[in-house]
Design brief:
This protein is mainly β. The protein is built from four helices and 18 strands. InterPro entries: Laminin/Netrin_ECM (IPR050440), Laminin_N (IPR008211), LE_dom (IPR002049).
Length: about 350
């Protein structure tokens, strides 16, 4: 055999040995595969309905606690890089030693009888994901919200569905019972809970975390539950802050809290969304691809003769069996119309 041919074969053999195995196949047989778990929010833009300092410098205060009220205050000015608090800080690198915050404009004094604040944060993931959690970390010493609503969209913001509610008074604020039982008949219904009031405060700020499958009866059989698969699917997540934490009705308001009234605000340091790129078990990764109007967008690297941005259909000429989501038992590979014929 010529030396050049030997060198070519040796190079090809080395390349094959170096290439990692395809997670979507085992010894040539198709199997379910899923992309890595990621923080889908990281680096994505967030649209905030309220940002401090947009209309000029404004004074904002945290609850003073035991400190002098003046030490709990700062000036926010969107025109100055050292004093601005934009929503881009929500999805940047979360460093507990260098906390960056988004801060809303100052709010009127909170009251159950006043209209809700309706300060919103809208995160676009720009691809369907199957979400495991939505997490908000509040800035150190910041006022904590009393009533928060989380919504999700599965059609890129066209329609919105309630995902979860938090409030000390669920029925009064959201018209829902506190910690209602989820059954197999209502697994796609949002619950309201007051448990976020128990979340511990630490040096990095309190955290609110919503687990999308917690308490859902079919969670253990997620692979074969289309209802829950739809429930966790989202392209966008919106958080709406309705009210800050308030003193109980009838309680006396001390002079420090009164001094901070009208300067309190919402302040969040991290907005995280944990989940996997939705590929229906037919891809192990999502990659940039050209979409409509030649725009680059994230899409599944589909295997098993599937196609579509989410591997949600069979490739052309592979309709010998209906499309199906891959499970641990069956990869549901799309079959060609003719044996051993592929495109």
């Amino acid at each position: 055999m010529p030396a050049r041919a030997v060198a070519f074969l040796a190079t090809a053999a080395l390349a094959l040995a170096a290439s990692p195995p395809d997670p979507c196949y085992e010894e040539g047989r198709p199997r379910r595969c899923i992309p890595d778990f990621v923080n889908a929010a990281f680096g994505n833009p967030v649209v905030a309905s309220s940002i401090c300092g947009r209309r000029g410098p404004e004074r904002l205060c945290d609850p003073p606690g035991d400190q002098n009220p003046e030490n709990a205050c700062r000036v926010c000015d969107a025109a100055r890089s050292d004093r601005r608090h934009p929503p881009a800080h929500l999805t940047d690198l979360n460093n507990p030693h260098d906390v960056t915050c988004w801060r809303s404009a100052a709010l009127a004094a909170a009251s159950y009888d006043s209209p809700p604040d309706n300060v919103s944060l809208t995160l676009s993931l720009n691809k369907k994901y199957e979400l495991t959690y939505v997490s908000l970390q509040f800035c150190p010493k910041a006022a904590r919200p009393d009533s928060v609503a989380i919504y999700k969209s599965a059609d890129y913001g066209v329609t919105w569905q309630p995902f979860q509610f938090y409030s000390s008074q669920c029925r009064r604020v959201y018209g829902r019972p506190n910690k209602a039982t989820v059954t197999a008949a209502n697994e796609q219904e949002a619950r309201c809970s007051d448990s976020h009031r128990l979340a511990g405060e630490n040096s990095g700020g309190a955290r609110l975390a919503f687990s999308t499958l917690e308490g859902r009866p079919s969670a253990a059989n997620f692979d074969i539950s289309p209802v829950l698969q739809d429930w966790v699917t989202a392209t966008d997540v919106r958080v709406v802050f309705n009210r800050l934490h308030m003193v109980n009705e009838g309680d006396e308001v001390d002079s420090k809290k009164q001094a901070a009234a009208g300067t309190q605000h919402y302040a969040v340091s991290d907005f995280a969304v944990g989940g996997r790129c939705k590929c229906n078990g037919h891809a192990s990764r999502c990659i940039p691809a050209k979409g409509e109007e030649s725009q680059v967008q994230l899409a599944c690297d589909c295997k098993h003769n599937t196609a579509g941005r989410d591997c949600e259909r069979c490739k052309p000429f592979h309709f010998d069996r209906p499309w199906g989501r891959a499970t641990a038992r069956d990869a549901n590979e799309c079959k060609g119309l003719w044996p051993n014929y592929s495109f």
